[in-house]
Design brief:
Blueprint (H helix, E strand, L loop, with lengths): L1 H15 L5 E8 L10 E4 L5 E3 L5 E5 L7 E6 L6 E5 L3 E2 L2 E3 L9 E2 L7 E2 L8 E3 L1 H6 L15 E7 L2 E6 L10 E5 L2 E2 L20 E8 L3 H4 L6 E7 L7 E11 L9 E14 L3 E13 L30 E2 L4 E4 L3 E4 L3 E2 L7 E16 L2 E17 L3 E17 L3 E11 L4 E2 H8 L14 H16 L11 H8 L9 H11 L14 E10 L1 H4 L3 E13 L13 E16 L4 E12 L5 E12 L3 E12 L3 H5 L1 E3 L3 E4 L16 E2 H16 L4 H8 L14 E14 L3 E13 L2 E9 L12 H6 L5 E9 L4 E13 L5 E12 L16 E13 L2 E10 L2 E4 L7 E4 L2 E12 L4 E8 L18 E11 L2
Parallel strand pairs: 1-7, 1-8, 14-17, 37-42
Antiparallel strand pairs: 1-4, 2-3, 2-5, 5-6, 9-10, 11-16, 12-13, 14-15, 16-17, 18-19, 18-51, 19-20, 20-25, 21-24, 22-23, 25-26, 26-27, 27-28, 27-29, 28-30, 30-31, 31-32, 32-33, 33-34, 34-35, 35-39, 36-37, 38-41, 39-40, 40-43, 41-42, 43-44, 44-45, 45-46, 46-49, 47-48, 49-50, 50-51
GO molecular function, one term: siderophore uptake transmembrane transporter activity
Membrane topology: Multi-pass membrane protein
Organism: Mucilaginibacter ginsenosidivorax
Length: 921
């Protein structure tokens, strides 16, 4: 690092003495004549560029660039223009105001810059202007207004986005990049929203590709891609400070309104058009949303008998009550649980620190080093509700880029710190205080049995002073000595379990990381006849959970994977038809390689009407957990599906199906009860046993077709419609097998008597194996969007998305949950300056009801009701103070909504903020 800084400073100092030609000029507003501040001026095809100062002036060193060349001038709120320069000197221009630029430039669809109108696949963009004027509490919340984007909130600091179905609270099928860096945590294998991303004031744009993007971006982009780009310190200089405060928890019974505080600062400085740096810091803190859905979801209780008075109650957001027994003469009884609010750390925060150094070695070569540090607390709904407590994610990025290539390397490392599983936490606390009938506290291994014994004793009338046959009285007797939330004993037990990892505690430990390298080169300028782009990537996972999840105390878990792609494009028929073909090959060391092609065609009519068709493919490699989990939980071992993970265990090769073991056990029991000798009963019924045929895990696959139209009418109306059809195979699932001690099949290919005898003899062990389902399913949908620009800067947008799922003949237990509303709509309306520097923005979202399936509720359905929310903001620009004041709210009508079953209800956030921009330029 010290050497890098020395070289950069040395080169910068050398540049001070260089005598170079330059051009200067002033940019002004064509309507008002005022200076345009912060406009970007770059040389087309080069990296050389600068921005205008507070008076609209600029000076651009040409660094050996000789005329003729073209300048590209862009500024927020103005149309982008190109100006041909034939000689050095002064170039002053007037820019035309444009409240919204409908013909945006995007780069994610084909990995090169192009007009959004001519994108070969569906793509959505949130521009810098949209980010600044977004009415939601954060820009990330505002992504839900984009067409086809789904959102799920698990926490105040954690929102998950997705496209085109198969949604989840932890989405490993959707890729999120920040400046090209995969923002997933190595242990969780998905991005935790924007908890560890970039601050609002450093985001330049957000692009979303709905649907399979594996042909260009590899295995994680199975469902789509979100690409976030931060501001270049050469273009966006000076100091920006944002102070935002607000309140949430209105109209709630458990908590009064609480304050939210969000502070962010960004400073960037460029030196001599060669060296630039930027520093970012942001901190958000507040009181998290409460998960308080106490619906009884006991799978062992008939629906009509469920409720708060059910002795076997299993409330959705109460934990510890999952532990239950069927007691003779009483029925199903569950232990008394603890409410989530007593277990979760609801004082959440998100700290983000960022620094970057940029050095332009030449007009076409720039070196970048960037470091990101993120630390925060969030609630996550998975198989349980997890507290990501003081979780840390760090990234280092080094990149060398030119106008037609880049080479990038980065590392991503996590530390789970004080994170824990709230369901396990409740169960462990419940085992710390149970007393026997003599009043003595028993050891944790005897706690559950002792508690149920106390309950039975009291209910049956054998406990002095306790009313017999009274479930409430029996529970009170069994709960004597229970640690009450908020007491010293409760807090001590809670803290001890949080910092105890593996099967003996609720703590979650991971210090995993991965290293990634990728690059691409655009050969188009050399070939000229057609466009050609090629690139590749390599990733190395290095997992470490210290034996709490993987068998990695002594055997480190590492995974290497690589991929390469090529894309060719050709324009035909007077450049009206553009054909593009892409293909990518990816190889993970544990699986066969996967080819993912993509073919597309875009036909342009009168330059503004564009019809597109595409065939896309996607695949998803099993995550490191899918491959290498090795967790013995007593009666069953959870085992990842990579071949090397089960080496020597002989499980995949020598085990029975769980269903056949159940049938065999029932038949043996009936035969013996009827007087058949045990050996004879085994011999007669061993034919019921079936050898399992579980395959090692492999990637999921998708094939998709899409048709679409995007057109710009009279430079006022943008129309975008699309239809897609996708088919899916090889969904990853779990299956249970039973392994006997003896060999299953004999030389004759039949089940051996020895292996069959192992089952009633208890000489077996159960394994939960990761594998794939052979079932095939499909999904299809359509979306339509309109954006209309009225006079005087008013803009109206509306979109609607239809999503449907066809299970076909598949087993529902073999398929990932679709978890997507059939209908979702958005409407936006705003004006950035309707009078005297006042602006406003409104955003309305509605979606239909649907059933949510997830591991949190044992893959049983939970209803997510239809809901409607409105976000609103009014702003006032204060040019004299270089600031903007905003007053707004998310979900302003305070509709308490659920976005996934088991997650908290989300209410209103009302806020006020002030942003100081263009300081210290």
């Amino acid at each position: 690092m010290k050497k890098l800084l020395f070289i950069i400073l040395l080169l910068s100092s050398v540049n001070l003495f260089a005598q170079e030609s330059k051009i200067t000029g002033t940019l002004t507003d064509a309507t008002t004549g005022q200076a345009v501040v912060g406009a970007s001026i770059t040389v087309k095809g080069k990296l050389t560029g600068t921005i205008t100062d507070s008076k609209g002036n600029y000076s651009l060193n040409l660094n050996k660039i000789k005329p003729p060349f073209t300048l590209i001038i862009s500024a927020v709120g103005y149309e982008q223009i190109e100006s041909n320069v034939t000689s050095t000197g002064e170039v002053s221009l007037k820019l035309q105001q444009k409240s919204i630029v409908l013909n945006e430039v995007v780069s994610s669809a084909t990995r090169i810059n192009q007009s959004i109108l001519q994108s070969p696949v569906s793509i959505e963009k949130m521009s810098l202007k949209a980010i600044k004027e977004n009415p939601s509490f954060t820009f990330y919340d505002g992504l839900q207004s984009l067409k086809g984007v789904e959102a799920v909130t698990s926490s105040l600091t954690y929102k998950q986005v997705n496209t085109r179905g198969f949604n989840s609270t932890g989405n490993g099928r959707f890729l999120q990049l920040v400046d090209g860096v995969d923002n997933q945590t190595p242990g969780l294998n998905f991005s935790v929203g924007n908890l560890f991303g970039a601050s609002d004031i450093d985001i330049e744009s957000a692009e979303v590709i709905p649907g399979a993007a594996s042909a260009l971006y590899g295995p994680v982009a199975f469902n789509g891609l979100l690409s976030l780009k931060t501001k270049d310190p050469f273009k966006y200089q000076g100091l920006t400070v944002q102070v935002k405060t607000g309140m949430n928890h209105f109209g709630e019974s458990s908590v009064k309104p609480q304050g939210l505080y969000d502070f962010a600062a960004r400073y960037a400085k460029a030196f001599n058009d060669r060296f630039a740096l930027k520093i970012n810091a942001s901190y958000l803190t507040g009181r998290d949303w409460y998960a308080e859905n106490y619906t009884d979801v006991s799978a062992s209780t008939p629906v009509a008998q469920r409720g708060p008075n059910n002795p076997g109650r299993d409330a959705l957001n109460i934990y510890g009550d999952e532990v239950s027994r069927t007691l003779p003469g009483i029925g199903l009884v569950s232990r008394t649980g603890y409410e989530e609010k007593d277990l979760m750390n609801y004082n959440v925060y998100s700290l983000k620190l960022n620094g970057a150094l940029h050095y332009r070695i030449s007009n076409n070569l720039e070196a970048i080093y960037q470091y990101n540090f993120g630390k925060g607390t969030a609630s996550y709904t998975g198989s349980s509700r997890f507290d990501l407590n003081n979780f840390v994610l760090q990234t280092h990025r080094v990149e060398l880029k030119g106008s037609n290539f880049f080479i990038r390397g980065y590392s991503v490392a996590e530390n789970s710190h004080d994170s824990y599983n709230t369901r396990s936490l409740a169960q462990f606390i419940n085992r710390d205080w149970v007393q026997d009938l003599s009043g003595n506290t028993v050891t944790p291994d005897k706690a559950d049995d002792t508690w149920f014994t106390r309950y039975s004793t009291a209910y049956n009338g054998s406990a002095a002073g306790v009313t017999a046959h009274d479930n409430a009285a029996a529970r009170a007797f069994a709960d004597q000595g229970r640690f009450l939330p908020g007491t010293a004993a409760f807090n001590a037990a809670k803290d001890a379990s949080i910092h105890n990892y593996g099967l003996s505690g609720a703590g979650v430990f991971s210090a995993s990381k991965f290293y990634h390298a990728d690059g691409q080169y655009d050969f188009t300028s050399a070939i000229k006849v057609f466009e050609l782009l090629a690139g590749g990537s390599y990733r190395d996972y290095r997992m470490f959970t210290n034996g709490s999840l993987f068998d990695d105390k002594t055997n480190r878990v590492t995974i290497a994977e690589y991929g390469a792609f090529m894309q060719a494009a050709k324009k035909l028929f007077d450049d009206n038809l553009k054909l593009t073909a892409s293909i990518r090959y990816d190889k993970n060391e544990n699986f066969k390689g996967s080819f993912t092609p993509r073919f597309s065609a875009v036909y342009t009519v009168d330059k503004t009407h564009n019809f597109r068709a595409s065939y896309q493919t996607g695949f998803r490699n099993p995550t490191p957990v899918d491959q290498f989990i090795h967790l013995n939980v007593g009666p069953i071992t959870i085992l990842g599906g990579a071949p090397k993970n089960s080496a020597g265990l002989n499980v995949y090769e020598n085990s029975f199906t769980a269903s056949s073991v159940s049938a065999f056990g029932a038949a043996i029991g009936a035969a013996v009860a009827g007087g058949t000798p045990f050996p004879q009963a085994v011999e007669q019924n061993k034919g019921l046993l079936q050898k399992s045929n579980v395959a090692y895990i492999k990637p999921e696959q998708q094939k998709a077709f899409e048709l679409g139209y995007k057109g710009l009418i009279m430079d006022k109306l943008l129309v975008d419609v699309n239809y897609y059809y996708s088919s899916y195979t090889n969904f990853i699932l779990n299956t249970v097998v039973i392994q006997p001690q003896d060999q299953i099949l004999g030389a004759d290919g039949k089940v051996t008597t020895a292996s069959a005898s192992d089952i009633p003899g208890g000489k077996v062990h159960a394994f939960q194996l990761y594998t794939n389902a052979p079932d095939k399913v499909s999904a299809q949908g359509a979306s339509a969007g309109l954006t209309y620009l009225f006079d005087k800067g008013y803009a109206l947008g509306a979109n609607a998305t239809l999503s449907t799922f066809n299970l076909r003949n598949a087993n529902p237990n073999n398929i990932a949950a679709f978890n997507t509303p059939k209908w979702a709509t958005n409407t936006t309306f705003g004006n950035s300056n309707f009078a005297n520097n006042f602006g406003f923005n409104l955003a309305w979202h509605w979606q239909s009801a649907f059933d949510w399936y997830g591991t949190f509720n044992g893959t049983r359905p939970g209803r997510v009701d239809a809901y409607s929310v409105v976000d609103a903001q009014i702003s006032k620009k204060l040019p004299k103070f270089k600031s903007t004041v905003k007053l707004g709210g998310s979900n302003i009508f305070n509709q308490h909504i659920y976005q996934s079953y088991g997650s908290p209800a989300i209410g209103a956030i009302y806020y006020v903020s002030i942003v100081f921009d263009d300081l210290l330029k």
